[in-house]
From TrEMBL:
Transmembrane segments: none annotated. Pfam families: CBM_35. Gene3D superfamilies: Galactose-binding domain-like (2.60.120.260), Immunoglobulins (2.60.40.10). Residues 188-298 form the CBM6 domain. It comes from the Bacteria. InterPro entries: CBM6, FN3_dom, FN3_sf, Galactose-bd-like_sf, Ig-like_fold, PKD_dom_sf. GO terms for molecular function: carbohydrate binding. This is Beta-1,4 mannanase.
Length: 301
């Protein structure tokens, strides 16, 4: 791709090897050309043409098109809750979000910083969602910034940290809980003439063929917030959908892929409370297929 300030040139190459060199260029499946926004002047008209090449040589230039540069870069728009309250032993989950216009590029760098006194530790200061913990009670101002390379936006959340009310976890960022097998769960088995819920010789519970079949576990979490649920399952009879219910909430439907008889693991995001939580798995309204499950494990990384 070549660009010029007039229809007749002079021309500057601004894009190379846009197609893969083998297949015909398809804009729906191949990366489209994107000029460097930083090199363009707002309100100016630019002219573009294209050449192609193969093993036999290079084509003549294409027809010339004109584009008036009218897209003014806007700073990212940041959304952040203004105030949070926690205790020193719990830390806090920080969740920011941002939207950008994709200019000057699709890359936006994000980060958390502390303003003022006191010491704050971030699990991942370069992520919009992370956890933080504090060395002492007090009031902390934590600022989230989204930077598109030319413009940036920031918002600050005030975190009020009280005295510890319990024992602090050994690690505020990572957690690997107990593996709960089917033996540790409580079964609810619906009456049926066939395909009754049972544990096989391989240790998998299934097939959850009847609506209402479920298993429930009481699991522990060191703090309130987002976790991952490692689910060991078996989809030997094909793909299916079953659901998890956390602390009596709405069923969270999960599509499970087909597996071999050894099964595999799938990670499901869940929101848990500090302490004891009830997690149920089973066949709820709208679920389908035959499913086998062996264990669950709560983790944070």
């Amino acid at each position: 791709v070549e660009r010029a300030d007039s229809p007749t040139g002079p021309w500057t190459v601004v894009g190379r090897d846009i197609s893969d060199g083998v297949n015909e260029w398809n804009p729906e499946t191949m990366v489209l050309f994107r000029d460097d926004y930083r090199q363009l002047q707002l309100g100016h008209t630019y002219y573009y043409r294209v050449t192609a090449k193969n093993e036999s040589g290079r084509s003549a230039p294409s027809n010339v098109i004109s584009v008036q540069h009218s897209e003014e870069n806007q700073p990212p728009v940041v959304t952040l809750e203004p105030a949070l309250t926690t205790t020193q032993d719990q830390g806090v989950e920080l969740t920011a979000s941002w939207q950008d216009d994709g200019l000057p590029s699709r890359e936006v760098k994000v980060g958390w910083q502390q303003a003022g006194d006191g010491q704050v530790h971030f699990c991942h200061a370069d992520r919009a969602q992370t956890r933080a913990w504090f060395t002492a009670p007090g009031t902390y101002a934590l600022t989230f910034t989204a930077d598109d390379g030319l413009l940036k936006s920031s918002k600050t959340v005030t975190v009020t940290v009280g005295e510890a009310t319990g024992k602090a976890p050994a690690d505020f960022c990572r957690y690997y809980g107990e593996v709960y097998g089917v033996a540790e769960g409580r079964l609810t088995v619906m009456k049926s003439d066939k395909d009754a819920l049972t544990v096989g010789e391989d240790g998998f519970l299934g097939p959850f063929a009847n609506e209402g079949d479920k298993i429930g576990w009481q699991v522990q979490a060191p703090w309130s917030g987002q976790f991952l649920l490692n689910v060991t399952f078996n989809g030997k009879w094909g793909g299916k959908q079953n659901s998890f219910v956390v602390n009596g909430g709405a069923p969270q439907a999960v599509a499970f892929p087909q597996t071999d008889e050894q099964g595999q693991q799938l990670r499901i995001p869940v929101t848990l409370n500090a302490g004891t939580n009830q997690i149920d798995f089973g066949r709820f309204a709208g679920d389908w297929g035959y499913m086998f499950i062996k264990s669950i494990e709560v983790v944070a990384e």
